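Quick question, first post here. What does this chain look like in 3D?
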Amino acid sequence: MKKSFLLFICSLLISGLFAQSDSTKSDKKIKSKAKVLFSINSDMWLNAENDIDIKPISLGMELFSVSKKYFGKSPVGIMYGLGVTCHNINYNMFLSYDTLNRTVLSKIPDSLNTKKNKLSVSYLDIPLEIFFSPKKGKSFNISAGMKAGYLINTHTKYKGKNPDGSGNDLKTKTANIKNVEPFRYGITGRIGYGAVSISCYYSLSSLFKEDKARLKEFTPFTIGITFLFL
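> Answer (accepted):
Ran it through. Tokens below.
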């Protein structure tokens, strides 16, 4: 968490420098404004194996410093920035590895008392979107684009009865999960009114390395509510 916070502070400074540089070019018709973008998301996996049951509430978040550039007097422009995205998957699987060091997800029996079980991955992301948003007053806005990121943190948390069937209580946190792809990229979209919008992210890359996971390929997907602050 401390690492993510420090990376976010760095992103604010970088975007602030970009915005300051743009403001000195008064002869340009493209103007930029630095903003903070914050999203509360629901994370899921599309086309996952039937045994994988992801809870309806798997909350993640993203925090970005972004700059919006309008093309002259047009309501159309681009938005770019830097920030951190955290995904949390609350599911009924226990992550382990086989003899070939491949990732395996084993179903936790329904009869087993599980209080917490999640897989978390965090990325340093760069978003780039084309948007339509009138400059004055609250109004309808829409944007589409993509974001790409680099993996900065992975861990699992489990609290409940031990899945090995011993009946003992188990509380564990495992960091640096193996076989997760270090880079990711995907399509983004937003539609909203004023500073609030509904957002989504559809991954075009896999969560796990294809040759290092013994499971059917699935698609990470996120839908959330985004707030854009000055």
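Confidence is low (pLDDT under 50) at residues 15-30.
Helices lie at 2-23.
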